[in-house]
Amino acid sequence: MSDPSHQFHRHPSLPFAELRISRQSCYSYRLHAHAQYSIGIVDEGETLFVHNQGTAVLKVGRVVLLEPEHWHACNPETSQPWSYRMLFVQADWVHQQLGVPSLRFAKHAPSDPEASRWVDQLCRPLASNADPSKTQAYIQSLTDFLRLLGSSAPACGDPPHAVLPALQQLHSNPEADTSLQALALQCGMSPSRFSHRFKAATGVTPGSYRLNLRLNAARHLLAQGQSLAAVAQQMGFADQAHMQRAFKAHHALTPGNYAQANH
Questions:
Q1: Which is nearest to 228 in space by CA: 248, 211, 252?
Q2: Residue 255, φ and ψ in degrees, nearest 5
Q3: Centroid of chain to Cα 185
């Protein structure tokens, strides 16, 4: 049975985007990162926004902008329910539309009322039966928004060369149970030094980084209609229950809820 407090919407004319609507949610998130660009707005209540550039309390109307692989958590203040919408936009689509290798937002929580109105309007078509003839107008509005609040950036920023072999291994095979020792050896370090350098470069441990990659891949496969059991096995989880616990901790709903909530 799906969780009515969380809904996911896609529109056939906008296959590059997915909208999450969460209403009266008290769930807390573990630190995580998305594979897509994320554009969000707080509709009710308030949340503590934690990311690698600091923390901020976000109230109604405040916008959140996140690049792919930007580690963050948004949790309700004092466990009170809050409501929000989050628009996820495929990174490759953004780069192609804007003609940039990557995009970096100047502010991750802008307070400009115009930005709030714009995000509200960008979310609405995916939650309704939008007119397909207006697709190009929507794409123009979205790309204008991204150009206004973002700027071109190098594809990988400043690459963490010391741990780059391990990152490449994790991204190419997130389902593999490559040991910490093996990852450290690829980088020519002892396990303890490697763990220290990896966390300094990414902000999280190698294990947390791999789990986040697995969960993002699982989410993508579930959105394509694959079964929970198949996805759990394919992404290297011990079993379906293991995937469920991790998915709920990071995304505030179970993988089954996510699969059923997709429209």
A1: 248
A2: -60, -30
A3: 30
DSSP state of 36: S
b/e for 200-219, b at 16 or more Cβ within 10 A? ebbbbebebbbbbbbbbbbb
Residues 245 and 113: their CA atoms lie apart, in Å, by: 38
pTM for this entry? 0.87
Amino acid at residue number 155: A
28 — pLDDT class (breaks 50, 70, 90): confident
Question: Coil, strand or helix: which one is 175?
Answer: coil
Sign of the torsion formed by the C-alpha atoms of 74, 221, 157 and 179: positive
And the tokens for 110?
A: 């802008």
Given a contact cutoff of 8 angstroms between Cβ atoms, the answer to whether 73 and 96 are in contact is no
- Considering only CA atoms, which of 21, 26, 25 is closest in space to residue 10? 21
Structure tokens at 192: 């303890």
* Percentages of the chain per state (helix, strand, coil), in multiples of 5: 45, 25, 30
Q: How far apart are CA 46 and CA 143, in angstroms?
A: 28
* CA-based radius of gyration for the chain: 19
pLDDT at 3: 56
